[in-house]
């Protein structure tokens, strides 16, 4: 079983257009960040969380041709506007790509991308999007979901259980609810949004996240959705041993 960080950057990525690296060293490839996404590989099956604008390059880098499931956290562009890349996966799958989203996100995606889910002229639909339940089996993995506030909307955070291993993923949120605390308590790995050091209105900041990791007894954590102020080497030096900055291509294997 493997979890791969496909993208560890913010909505603009790092660098921003204009070669704005901020405080990040452009000579360190770990600072080049695509939009946030993860891939879970288990028993020959692939689950991707979110299809941002960098989805094609992310799947090429991971050498992934087929997908057994797509889970969307929410409807913001940096998390779903690479949905057209699922057309290539459709051909490799030889069938529709199975997707899941919470009710609001499901409705918005089907309205925003009708051609993907309903087809267009003689072109068939290449993806489906079913309701993402609170607790379900998806491609052989138990997935439990909680909704976290992300400004005026919500984002789906989730826990994946495979055998004795528990992993959690939470991005694009600004408050950790009691329900989420219970779900994430003591997980083996938490890949979690930590956009910057300064407080942010719709994302968690570094001090908050480190406090949560400690409070929840998380065994290992990787910080994602990092902006251009979060240089990899500088940030890593500030973190406890069991916490690290995520980077594109980082893998955890059990």
Radius of gyration: 17 Å
Low-confidence stretches: none
**Strand element count:** 14
CATH C-level category = Alpha Beta
Largest sheet: 7 strands, mixed
The proportion of strand residues reads 25-35%
Q: What is the CATH architecture assignment?
A: 4-Layer Sandwich
Task: Figure out the total of helices.
Answer: 8
Strand order of the largest sheet: 6-5-4-3-2-1-14
Q: Overall pLDDT, averaged?
A: 98
Give the helix proportion (percent range): 10-25%
Instruction: Give the CA-based shape.
Output: globular
**Number of structurally distinct domains:** 1
Distance between the termini: 5 Å
- The secondary-structure class comes to alpha/beta
The CATH H-level homologous superfamily = Ribonuclease Z/Hydroxyacylglutathione hydrolase-like
Instruction: Give me the strand/helix succession.
Output: EEEHEHHEHHEEEEEHEHEHEE
What would the CATH topology be? Metallo-beta-lactamase, Chain A
Q: In a nutshell, what does this entry contain?
A:
The protein is an alpha/beta fold and 254 residues long. 23% of the residues lie in helices and 30% in strands.
Q: What does the model show?
A:
This protein is α/β, with parallel strands linked by helices. The chain has one domain (2-253): Ribonuclease Z/Hydroxyacylglutathione hydrolase-like (Metallo-beta-lactamase, Chain A, 4-Layer Sandwich). 23% of the residues lie in helices and 30% in strands. It contains eight helices and 14 strands. It has helices at residues 55-61, 77-80, 86-93, 103-112, 114-118, 178-184, 206-216, 232-238; strands at 2-7, 37-42, 45-49, 69-71, 97-101, 127-131, 135-138, 141-150, 153-162, 165-170, 189-193, 221-224, 243-245, 251-253. The protein has a seven-stranded mixed beta sheet with strand order 6-5-4-3-2-1-14. The protein has a seven-stranded mixed beta sheet with strand order 7-8-9-10-11-12-13. Strand 9 and strand 10 form a beta hairpin. The longest helix is centred in the C-terminal third of the chain and has 11 residues, at 206-216. The radius of gyration is 17 Å and the shape is globular.
């Amino acid at each position: 079983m493997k979890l791969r960080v496909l993208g560890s950057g913010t909505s603009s990525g790092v660098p921003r257009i204009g070669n704005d690296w901020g405080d990040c060293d452009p000579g360190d490839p770990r600072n080049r960040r695509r939009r946030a996404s993860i891939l879970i590989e288990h028993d020959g099956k692939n689950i991707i969380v979110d299809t941002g604008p960098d989805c094609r390059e992310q799947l090429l880098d991971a050498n992934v041709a087929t997908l057994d499931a797509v889970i969307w956290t929410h409807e913001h562009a940096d998390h779903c506007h690479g949905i057209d890349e699922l057309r290539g996966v459709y051909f490799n799958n030889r069938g529709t790509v199975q997707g899941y989203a919470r009710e609001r996100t499901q409705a918005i995606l089907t309205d925003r991308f009708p051609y993907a889910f309903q087809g267009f002229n003689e072109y068939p639909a290449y993806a489906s999007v079913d309701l993402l339940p609170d607790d379900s089996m998806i491609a052989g993995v138990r997935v439990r979901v909680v909704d976290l506030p992300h400004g005026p909307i919500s984002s789906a955070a989730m826990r994946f259980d495979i055998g004795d291993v528990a992993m959690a993923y939470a991005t694009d949120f600004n408050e950790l609810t009691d329900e989420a605390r219970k779900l994430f308590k003591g997980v083996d790995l938490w890949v979690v949004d930590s956009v910057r050091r300064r407080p942010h209105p719709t994302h968690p900041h570094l001090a908050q996240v480190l406090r949560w990791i400690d409070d929840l007894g998380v065994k290992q954590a990787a910080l994602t959705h990092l902006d251009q102020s979060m240089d990899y080497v500088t940030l890593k030096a500030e973190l406890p041993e069991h916490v690290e900055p995520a980077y594109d291509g980082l893998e955890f294997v059990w």
